[in-house]
Structure formats: C-alpha cells, structure tokens
Design brief:
heterodimer; A: alpha/beta; ABC transporter transmembrane region fold; Rossmann fold; 2 domains; 22 helices; 10 strands; about 10% strand; B: 3 domains; 6-stranded mixed sheet; 4-stranded antiparallel sheet; binds adenosine-5'-triphosphate; binds magnesium ion
Amino acid sequence: MPTRRRDAVLRRGFRHIRRAVAEQPRMFALALLASTLYGGMTVASAWVIGEITSRVLLPAFDEGATTGAALTLAAVAILGVAVLKIVGILGRRLFAGVMSYRLQAEYRRRVTGQYLRLPLSWHQRHPTGQLLSNANSDVEAAWFFVAPLPFACGALVMIAITAVALVLTDPLLAVVGLVVFPLVFLANIVYSQVMSPRMQRAQQLRAEVSEIAHESFDAALVVKTLGREDTETERFGERADQLRDGLIAVGRVRGLFDPMMEALPSLGTLAVLLIGAGRVADGAVDAGELVAIAYLFTLLALPIRAIGWVLADLPRALAGFDRVTPVLEATGETPYGPDAATVTAAGAGVALRGAGFTFAGGTRPTLTDVTFDVPAGRTVAVVGPTGSGKSTLAGLLVRLVDPADGTVLLDGIDLRRLREGEVSTQAAFVAQSAFLFDDTVRDNITLGGPYDDEQVEAALRVAAADEFVAALPEGLDTRVGERGASLSGGQRQRLALARAVVRRPRLLVLDDATSAVDPSVEARILDALRAGERPATVVVVAYRQATIALADEVVWLAEGRAVARGTHAELLEEVPGYAELVRAYSQAEVAA
Amino acid sequence: MTAATLPADRRAEGAMTTLRRGLRMMPEFRRGLPATFALALVATAGRVVVPIAVQQVIDRGLDGPDGPDLELVTWLVAACALVVLLTAVAVYRMNVRLFRTTETALANLRVRAFRHVHDLSVLHQQGERRGSLVSRVTSDVDQLSVFMQWGGVLGLVSMGQLVVATVVMAVYSWQLTLLVLVSFVPLVFAVRWFARRLAQVYGVVRERVGDVLAAVAESVVGAPTVRAYGVRARTAARLDAAIDRHYRSQVDAQKVTAAVFVSGEFVAAVANAAVVVVGVLLGLAGDISAGTLVAFLFLVTLFVAPVQTASEVLNEAQNAIAGFRRVLDVIDTEPDVRDPAVATPDRVRELPAGPLGIRFEHVTFRYAHGARPSLDDVDLTIAPRTRVAVVGETGSGKTTFAKLVTRLMDPVGGRVLLGSDDGGLVPLAEVGFASLRARVVMVPQDGFLFDATVAENVRYGRPGMTDDEVVAAFGDLGLGAWLAGLPEGVATAVGQRGESLSAGERQLVAIARAYVADPDLLVLDEATSAVDPATEQRLTRALDTLTEGRTTLTIAHRLSTAERADEVLVVDAGRVVQRGTHAELVDAEGPYARLHASWRRSSAGEPEPVG
Ligand SMILES: Nc1ncnc2c1ncn2[C@@H]1O[C@H](COP(=O)(O)OP(=O)(O)OP(=O)(O)O)[C@@H](O)[C@H]1O
Ligand SMILES: Nc1ncnc2c1ncn2[C@@H]1O[C@H](COP(=O)(O)OP(=O)(O)OP(=O)(O)O)[C@@H](O)[C@H]1O
Ligand SMILES: [Mg+2]
Ligand SMILES: [Mg+2]
C-alpha cells in the first residue's frame, strides 16, 4: 500500500514475525532453545580450542612431553562440545522446520476452509488459478522466513554475549564493533522499502502465471481442436516473461543486499583490529584480548547473516500474506439458522415467495418475483428458453444461493432458518453438468454417506448405470479420474443421478440432468422416487415432452419470471411461446 | 483410469543425469555461465582471503615480536577492506548475472513445459490432474530457481574454498592434512547415501504439492456439488488429509536434511580432535612447531565451513532436482499423437482442398491395455458433403469415434483417412496439424469458454475478427436476438469457464466459435444438448444452410438431428451396427427403430411405459 509510511514495511514485518511466534509458541520456544544451545556451543567450541591451546598444546610443546590423560581430555572436550552443538542443530532444524511447515499447513487448512465456506458468488469472482496460488505459493511465501527465524533469534543471544564481552574488554572497541548493527538495521530498512513493491509484483505475477496455466490446461481440448497451441503458448509466455523480469528485478535488490550483509561483519572485524591495534599500542588492552575480540567478531558473521536471511525474506512473506489475508477475511459466509426441518413421511413441500435474484455485478435481475408452490409429493416441471433462469431457480431451491428478494420455503420454513446441512439431507440436486470427484464410483455415489453396496447398486440400477459400472475394470472400486474423465458424458450424468437417488431425498431437483439419458430411464428414476411410502417431491427442469408430461404441473419461466403455470395441456393452449418450445421437434417434422 | 500417464517416476535416476538432462534443455543458462563462474571465483578468493588476512593481521601485526606494528596493521587492514569490498562487488555482479541467466532459462523452461503439456494427447492430459500439471509449470520450476541462484554457486564456491584450504593446510603439514582428509572419508560415503535418500524424500514432497493443488482445484471447481450435497466436512477432511500428507513429507525431508548437516558437524569435530591429539604427538616427535599446529587448527575451520555449506547445497540440490525431474518428465514425454510436421517433416502432407470425406479402415480403439475396445473394428466410408448423424446409447463410443476423426487420439488398430473427391484420401497420421486443425473442427461435449468476453471467445476460432464480424456470425446462426439480449452484447464477459452464462448459452458461443473457424469438416459432439428445442431448431437449420456442401458429423441424443441427416450411423458397444438414411432405418429391424420410437414418444409427450 503506497500510502503507508516509509517504515511501515519493516514494522509490519515485525508484526508478522510476532504472528508466527504467537501461532506456534511451543515450537518456537523449542527451536529457540536449541538455537541458543547451538549458539552457546559455537562460542564454547572456540573457547575450548583456545583453552586446549593454552593448557595442553603449548605446555606440551614447551615441556616436550604430555600425558595421555591430557590429550584424551582435549579430545573429549572437543567431541563433547560438538555433540551438544549437534543436539542444538538437530533441535533447531527440526523444530524450526516443523514450525514453518505447521504454519504453512495451518494456513492452507484455513484458506481452503474458507474456499469451502464462502458462497458461490465469491467463487465466481475468483479464478481457480488464483485460488490455487493463494493456497500454495502465497502461503508458502508467507511462512518461508520462519525456518531461519529461531536461528536468527538465537543469533541475537550470541550478539548479546559478544556485546557484553566487548564492553567488558574495552568500551571503545565495543562502540566501534557495534556500529555494525545499526548499519545492518539501516540497510534493512532501505532494503525492505525497495524490495516490497517488487516482491508484491512478483507474487502477483506468479499467481497470474498459475491462473493462465490452470485455465489453459482446463481448456486443453478446445485449444487442441482449434489448433490454438501457439497462441496459448504466447499468452503464457508473455506472462512468464513478465514474471521473469519481475524476479530479475527482485534479484537485483537481493543480489546487492546479500553481499552487503556478508561484508558488514568483516568490515567490522577490520575496524576493530585497526582501532584495537592502536589501543594495544596505548596499552589500553593487551594483544590477547584483542585477538579474542577479533575472533568473536568473525564468529558473528554467521548469525548476522541468519538475521539477514529472515529480514531479507520479510518483504516476500508480507507479499504472500497480503494475498492470503483477503481470503481469510472474506465474509459472506452462508448464515444458518437454528431450525431443523420437519421430517414427515411424505415428500417435502417447497415454495418460492416473490423470489428475485441478481448475479453479482449483473445489471438486471436474473429472476424477478417468482412465486409458486410445489405441494409435497408432487412433480413440477420448470420449462423455459435458454438463459431464462431455470438453473438459477433450481439453485435457489437447494440453497446454493439465497434470493436477494423474497423467500424460499421448505415445508413452510425459510431455508435461511434451517441449520447447516439440513437442506442437503432433505433435498438432492443434480446439476446440469455432472461433477464427479477423482474417486471411486462407490465414493462418488455415497459421498461418504452411510449407504451400503446394496443400496448403491440399487441406485445404479435405477439410474441405468448398473450395466456399465459392472463392465468397468474394478466395478464399484474403479476410480473415475478427475471430474470423471474416464467416463463418457452420459455415464457421468448417470452416476450423478444415482448419487441423488441413493439418498432417497424428500425433494429432488433435476436441472436438465437427463439430456443424455433415455427417456425410459428418466421415467424409471422418477417412478422409483415417487413410489413407495415416501413419495418425493420433484422439481425437474426439462424440455422433453415426455418428462413434462410426467409432471403434475408446469411452470413456464421466461426472462426470469414465472409467467404461467398449469398443466402441460393448459400451457400448450394458453402460452404460445411454450407451445413453440416444447413442440419444436414435432413441428420440425411437419416442416420437413 | 486411463492407460496413458506421464512416465513412471524417475526418482531412481541419478541426480547428475537429471542435471545433465536439464542443462541440455537450457542453453540460455549455460551461455552466461563462464563469466558468472569467473566472478564466483573472485568471490571465492575473497571469502578465503578475508579470514586468512585477519589471521595475518593478528599474527604479524599484533603478536609480532615487538608488540603491535601499527603501520603494518593499517596497511593490512586497508588491503583487507579493499578485498572485502571487491568481493562484495564481485558477488553482487555475480548475483545479478545469475538471476538474469537463471530466470531467463527458467522462464523458457516453463514455457516449454507448458507448450509440451498442450502437445500431449488428450489421454495424457487427462492422466494427470490439472492441479498437478499446473504445479509442474509453477512451483516445481520455482523450486529450481532457489537452487540455481544460491545453491549452485555456493556449492562451487565451497569447492573452491575446500581446494584452497587443503592446499594451504598441506603447506603447513602434510601429515595433518592427510589426517583431516581421512576423517572426512566416511562423510563422503554417508553423503552419497544421503543424496539418494534426499532425492527420495523430496520427490515425495513435490508429488504431495501436486496432490494438494489437485485437491484444492477439485474443491473449488466442484463447489456447487459440495454445497448441494452438504459434503463440506468430507471435502474439508480430504483437503486436510492432502495438506497433512504434504506436511508430513516436508517434516520427513527435514529430518534427513538435519541428519546430513549434523553428520558434517560431527566429522568436523572428530577431525579437530584428531588434529589436536596427532598434532601434539607429531610435535613431540619434532615434526611440527606449536605455531604450525595452532595455525593448522584455524585452517581446519576453513576446511570445515565449506563442507557444511556443501551439505546444505546438496540438500537444496536434491530438492530442486525433485522439481526438475517433474518438469523434465513432462517435456520428455513423447506425445503419443504427434504432429507429423514435427515428427516426420519430410513426409508431412496437407489435406486436399474441398469438402472432406472420412474413411475408417478397420479401426479399433481402447482406452487402456486389455480394456474392452471402445471402438471395435469399425470400417466405413463417409462421402464428402454428407451430413452424418451418429447416434447410440450412452457409452457406445460416439465421442471416441469423433476423437478419432479429429485425431485427438490415434487408433490402436487400423487407420483413419480423410480426403476429398479429387484429392484422394490421406492417412490422418500424415496430415500436419496446421492443415488438420484449420479444416477439421470439433465442438466437444463440454465446450469450454475462456474468462473473457463473448467476442474474444468467438475470435478464438478465427483470430483477427472484428466485433462486427462476430455479431454478424451470431446473426448468421440465427442468434442475433440472443446476442442483443446480453447485457453488453458481444462485449459481455462470460466469467471463468463461461460460468456467467447459462449452460445453453455457453454452447451457443462454443458453436459460434467453431462456425467462424470455417472448417470443411465440422464435428458436433452433443453441442446443443443444453439448448432449448426452439433455439436448437433455429440454430441447426441455420447451420445446415451455412454448412451446405461441407461435411458435418453430429452426435446427439435428440434424434431430430438424425431425422434431418443424409445418413445415420448407429453405434452400439463400439461397433457401427446400422447405417442408412433415417427413412430406411426407422422401419428396419434394429436398434435405431427402437431408439427413435422412444425419442418420438418422449418428444411427443407420451409418458414412457415403465419397464
Ligand atoms: N454467474 C453469473 N453471473 C452473471 N450472470 C449469470 C451468471 N450465471 C448465469 N447468468 C445469467 O443469468 C441468466 C439465467 O441463467 P441460468 O443458468 O439460470 O439459465 P437457464 O435457464 O438454466 O439456461 P439453460 O437452459 O441454458 O441452462 C442467463 O442470462 C445468464 O447469462
Ligand atoms: N478417457 C477414458 N478412459 C477410459 N475409458 C474411457 C475414456 N473415455 C471413454 N471411455 C469409455 O469408452 C466407452 C465409450 O465412451 P464414449 O465417450 O465414446 O461414449 P459416448 O458414445 O460418447 O457416450 P455418451 O453418449 O455418454 O457421450 C465408454 O464405455 C467409456 O466408459
Ligand atoms: Mg441451466
Ligand atoms: Mg459422448
């Protein structure tokens, strides 16, 4: 956000770090502990070598003899410190890794949870490719910096120790050496400022590349059949090139920042040596102390770089997080009420009362003031020309969307008052284009519901899907591929029908779901549901006269209005548009 | 499942093989490399020189026999500072070069992989989930850049550092140098084992990323179904499971990584201890001096640091290579339906001019080895200019037939030929795609629209059309009124996958798109299944006139198509069991009479007898 103040990036960065720590305090604490152990042992290993030099090595050379015990002690000390250091490394790596991965997993769960929660209107505004990259690369970017974070925090401890040692040895040298840190900090502020916009752009382009790839692969068949591979490649290539340029721009800044972070501690060491030599000459410090300080300083190079890694990654983390936040904060979740549906032996009665609906961004209503009743156990056909709003209406009945005006009632209860899950247990909906999950035939029908194989097979029989399922290589256990890719169009439709049938719903809504199914199969499905002691209520969107004839009543929908209703025969008489539509085929024959 | 999938994973393949395979594919990357390496060498030199110089300042300037030598210290410090700055500049230049070359190379790799996905046959494309394919051109490539920009050079720098440190150590004491090298031998073996293990675990991680993407894509694309069936909890559970498996694979990889790093640390400690002990013993024997030993201990740390870095690099490398492999596997997959213009440029042919006829010579097709054939020994000829209707039960093989005519797939037996009256027949397998796709167009069962305007979607069939021409095309098809009724006419945005239009409207646009492509052979696979009968009748009548004199192949459950067609093919269980005109077939014994009777009854409004 360009309007924020200059230091905002870094401040937000620190807030982001705090967020990470607050989300995973235990892992962070453990990793920090391990990092501290590691830091301590790194210093200790230098100290041990120093001690061994002065206590074992030099005396041995001076005296020309040494004891086995002394040498063993030296070796054990080195190895002992190393083992502790190793424990530190292991802990740091594992805990920090787990922390980072947990954050990623947690945010992926939250993001995808939102995808499932948010209404369809939200989905229509967000391309799948973008949602994919939100859940994947943006979340990853947001928490990538966490892996070196505990190390960097542990490094702060090392820096503190060094600072104390420096101050104790010689305050002047301390000031000289510690000038490095404000410099590191300053460099970082500049870096974040320059980097942030570039990072945001890169992350945005990354998402766009993923969007194009997803859409294009989705369209693969169209691309192929029209021979448009070249233009698609061009379209993708253009964006990939922009991403490339964006990443190079990022690289320029990062490429400068990293050697700076590397050079600063070295320069600090040199400054300490230069000034220190003077101090030694003055007799303010002795040479041994200076050597120790210089050595400490060289040790600091790594932790400073670790801090650099974290800080360098913050702009990217923020860019990723900023892209995830709108998803997490998006509202418009479908509100549910407290009521349970009244379950009677019969089908459910549904009614629309003055229902109106306008798609987000739409200029005119798709449905206007639609009112009609479907009494329990009855079948109503909804007929209307292409684009008249039939699918939208069907979606209202099963609460895929809520009407903007008016209400939809199930057994007299406003759908919005029903508890979550209540509508879907009462009603089954078969959409115009069948959607299958990348799963087995069985799971596609049960969707995890408590239906045994007998029920599944019965449903398949009703939907006339039993024969082809039996012929599949693994029968009910055959995986159907993504969106049912390994089945024919009609086969997919039949599985979707079986999915509805197996539930024995009290309300069945069929949205032109039988276009590739024999009329006799359709009749069988409706019969199976309407027979027995619990005749389902059926709302069927259809064009076929035979299907319409099965209905007790027909609603004629034109331009989003329920213009007429009555029996098939009545509408044929009274509504010219209706007659033209349903008789199109018979007339065609007459004309031919 | 489909038989065609991308090649079995090559996790077993050696890392070097993958690298070589990959680098061969990225000439841009190699081109800039020598200069970058030169800079890397300077950087290495700098990185080695600085600690040594610091050591020298201490040894000579401060610890000199007569106390600190200020002048010498000043000079040395100045010289060192210069080297540090030069190193920084070299590293900066190197980074910039590296970013440029690698990003360029990777962008091209991305595009190549993307292109190749489109070149794969429909079966290959379906064999892989879309989310997973997307990850191959996005995150797998990203993974690679991390390594190429940091790991690769760091690895080289470390190698250089190792060599320098070894040489310097050898100058001090060859015995101790040998000792250090020997202590590191076990590490070499350990690393080889670790490398394999890392390749494995990272391979799993990359796959899991693809799984997560596929699961996310499914839950997003299937959102209406998830809602209608109230299976949010179940879908969430599946997503969580995919996310969790990915998480666990990451943790597994992290464990191996930590083990790699730690083993280097341990070996370093062993080497240090050994140097102390052996050094003292050597010193006592008079072979080295105390100063040498102390200096040597310092040098050992110089030797150890790059070993640590190298193990880090190894780790990054395996991670990157796991992604690399997935990208390369796409590129290396031979498309099983290849454009002869690419495969056999010397034998490529064009379709003869004029209306096209179709010839199937004993064509058999099955989707998987050993599966029941979806088309079984189909042998037939369709004359040019014929209007053919293909009818049959669900799953009988109609779409399969259409896909073979348009060469979206190749038959497993027999061959398909296209040709014109005077041009003769040409085997489809020899026709260049440019010619094929320009002349033969299919409207698939689920027509896909791009997230753009109606006009842009139609233009996809014929680039360069003006909006007015698009409007005119809809007019030709009898859809002018419909188009005018859209909120913004031809400029109406259709939403992703065309979802802001109704299902029937999407099909109208898809047909218009195919119509403007002006093909000589038009294949319509259930292209009007969701359009209302009145509009469909209007549309098909218009289309009949417009495609007069061309060949059309129409698949439809609505048999009105068959009634109007010149010829009807009846497909049953993969065989063409009847053919003839509607009039001939409707009274003949066979499946068509039955299908048609049922259709007549249904469209005439008689309820079906239930049976
Ligand atoms: N997501 C959307 N955003 C904007 N407009 C939409 C959206 N979905 C549908 N529409 C518009 O709303 C109208 C009704 O669409 P709907 O899908 O309900 O029609 P339908 O009667 O089911 O048509 P069909 O017979 O083709 O299935 C159409 O004009 C369509 O363009
Ligand atoms: N990708 C695939 N992998 C495996 N089997 C497939 C695949 N596509 C189709 N099949 C099978 O091949 C057979 C023929 O399918 P095809 O799509 O040609 O049928 P169709 O006649 O077009 O049916 P519909 O009228 O339902 O569209 C079916 O049994 C189907 O299950
Ligand atoms: Mg619809
Ligand atoms: Mg089909």
